[in-house]
Amino acid sequence: MPTSKNPGRLRDFVTAFAALLENKPPQAQILHDGGALLQQLIAVDDWLPDAYAQPQPERYQQYLLHADSAERFSIVSFVWGPGQTTPIHDHTVWGLIGMLRGAEYAQAYRRSAGGSLQAEGAPLKLTPGTVETLSPEAGDIHQVRNAFADSVSISIHVYGANIGAVQRSVYAEDGSSKAFISGYSNSHLPNIWDRSSELKKS
Amino acid sequence: MPTSKNPGRLRDFVTAFAALLENKPPQAQILHDGGALLQQLIAVDDWLPDAYAQPQPERYQQYLLHADSAERFSIVSFVWGPGQTTPIHDHTVWGLIGMLRGAEYAQAYRRSAGGSLQAEGAPLKLTPGTVETLSPEAGDIHQVRNAFADSVSISIHVYGANIGAVQRSVYAEDGSSKAFISGYSNSHLPNIWDRSSELKKS
Ligand SMILES: [Fe+3]
Ligand SMILES: [Fe+3]
Ligand SMILES: [Mg+2]
After folding, report:
1. Which of A61, B39, B72, B170 is least enclosed, having the fewest CB within 10 Å?
2. From the CA of A104, how many Å to the nearest CA of chain B?
3. What is the tens place of the pLDDT at every residue in A156-192?
């Protein structure tokens, strides 16, 4: 599997995010300051190894890039094949979505008084450089899809947990739900931690 | 690359180690309590994926298994081919060595009054289940070698930093030293974080 030109970019994001969480800030600060860090990460598209940018014809891929030792956060590369879409789902933890390549539509949903789900406003279009936030307290039920029918889109997600271990739900439009745990598409993570050659140069 | 039967064993070690470091304990406590955790990890040899247990004919391998988000610790699988040995080296950070498979000899060194290095006592033989500690304050210059001339040995090392980024030294017996950063042999880490199937069962 090829490696990226600039793994240090992801490593710097991980260590900066860990520093942000160090003093256990409130969720609003995580989303604000963490969102700014994610915006920096996705501002340049030179760091994602090709192995974590591969679509599959059957369904969208969720490649774990890093999991925090204490499962305080995880970083996932979402790769959308042409026309692919998620079910309507929730998260139960805070989330940040940064658009890296292509574009996606995110449609928020709300429960109506009768219990069914209703689309809340128009779908939001995310384009490269855009960061979206998700908060369970503010309502975190949505459906996300590739904006393109003929090309691949990639977004980088950060969650306030090891999302591969979070019990959450998918929904039908009638409001009925089914428990799910999303897991990961990859059995190996990128090793972004070898700094021997760059430090030798410095 | 094959995956292990029991990746949860390594994941539980990572999260327990993170919990230990949470309150910034003194080094003696990290070595004591962390050593007990490492002893539990290596008590059963069912969790190391084969990809991180492969020797190479040229030299011993250092496979990173996990790096902490804040580079507070790293976990490395050391794989010794028959007869392989390290140079005499230091670490500059605390370390824990747990013997998983085979055996190794660790020879401690001290500086003499004249500045040269002298072996300190007999080499220590590590056998499976044994945990050794390393502390820069107590003296952490040593040389480690496979105890076997005809088979592979594997030890699991935990360091108080991302050891792939630590500036340290190798030594000649006359006490002269050369700066080095050890780096890693692997470009991909095991993904030990997907808990979707085990949680579905429970
Ligand atoms: Fe989502
Ligand atoms: Fe050593
Ligand atoms: Mg961590």
Report:
1. B39
2. 25
3. 999 999 999 999 999 999 999 999 999 999 999 999 9
